[in-house]
Every structure is written in C-alpha cells, then in structure tokens.
Amino acid sequence: MSYAHYHMGSGSRTARRSLEFGKTHVVRPKGKHQATLVWLHGLGDNGLSSYQLLESLPLPNIKWICPTAPTRPVTILGGFSCSAWFDMGELSEDGPHDWEGLDASAAHIANLLSTEPADVKVGIGGFSMGAAVAQYSATCFAMGRYGNGIPYPVNLRAVVGLSGWLPGSTSLRNKIEVSHEARRRAASLPVLLSHGISDDVVLYKYGEKSAQSLSSAGFRYITFKSYDGLGHYTVPREMDEVCNWLNSRLGLGGSS
Question: InterPro entries in the record, alphabetically (predicted)?
Fold first, then answer.
C-alpha cells in the first residue's frame, strides 16, 4: 500500500496522520509501448472512472495508470470525507493551499512513473482537482523539487489538465525565473489545458489564469483550448483534441 504522510497543525504541536491511496487501475497499451501517463480523477471520484474514460481512446501506444486518491475530510464540503488529492476550501488564486497534501499526491504519482522503462516517455493528466495536481506536478518538475524541497525525480514530457486550476499561480513566476535550470525545464515541457466556458464548478477564469500564469513563468509550449457551452465535464471532441495533442507532442505511432 502507498501512504501519504500528512501533517495537520494543531496549536504548538503537529499531528501526523497517514492517508492511504485507493486502488490503481491500468490500461495496457494495445500496440508498442511508447508512453505512460498517470491520469488523475476529480474530487470524490476514483481510478475506475478514469480507466473507463481512457480505455477506448485511439492511443494504442500509451499505457494509462489510473490511481485513486486517499479518502480525507474536505473543507469545501464542510469536513465530509471523500476521495481527494488534497484538502481544499473555496477556490481562489491566493489559496490557502494544502501544500503537504499536494506534495504527497505529486510524490505518489512520480513514484508510479519512476519504474517505467527508460525509453518510455512519461506524463501526467487529470480532470478538475486531478488537473490541479497535474499542473502542480509540472511546476515541481520545472523547479526540480516539491514544495517541501525534496528533489522531483521524474522527467516529464507532457502534462494535460481538463477543467482545472493551478495551485500557487500567483507566486510561480518568481520561483522559476531565479533559476536557469528551472527556466530551461519549464521551456521544455508541453502543457495542454482545456476548459468549458460554461463551467460553474471550476470557473473558466481559473483555467484561463492557469494558462497565463504558466506562460508568463516560462512554459513556452502551452496550448489552451476553450469550449463554448461546456460545463464541468468532458465531451468526445475535447478528448479527440487530447488524443491529437498527445500523438503530436509525444511523437506516437509507427514502430519507433
């Protein structure tokens, strides 16, 4: 089992608790294995839903790893417990953010990717809260470390975020521009973000702000797609765009 070690402040003391990640589902590549992506579900969902979304996509060269988030109390739900990659309150650009929860989930994902063959390209994608963790992982990759300072171990080649947001967007540029290596890594990582204009759960402005923040921080290969009439869900034409983008950015197909 994999656990997230999570610190909760309690006055002058810090209470430590372990959160267990749920079941992981895997979609095996139907052709030559060229890439592996971890796909992260939204709040209250599970890895099986991700599996069902991805298994029918025309991407035979991709292995999909679909983990399930730990069950934890979630502030925005009044403390109700459900599967969540991190704790969150009302969505805002300035937080507060559950950095320890974000780091624990980002580390779990990196661990899932760390055993992939060296010639296989790796990436992260997700929906809603899962997209937030995918984007956070992109910033960890660029900076070469998690928010807690531990080195980030995976060479990401693609990040996809659907109907999500970027935790810590306001301070990202300052963190990356001070390091030549961070700027180089940010400039090397393609990111696809898409958002429904009619999203009433994670408002469209947060998706737009995410793309702007990543771009201004030095992520050169940002693709932002907006969808008229789309709410907080995915549609086939959006997933078609994801497939086309991954095929192009990861150079999938053929025998190599």
Answer: AB_hydrolase_fold, PLipase/COase/thioEstase
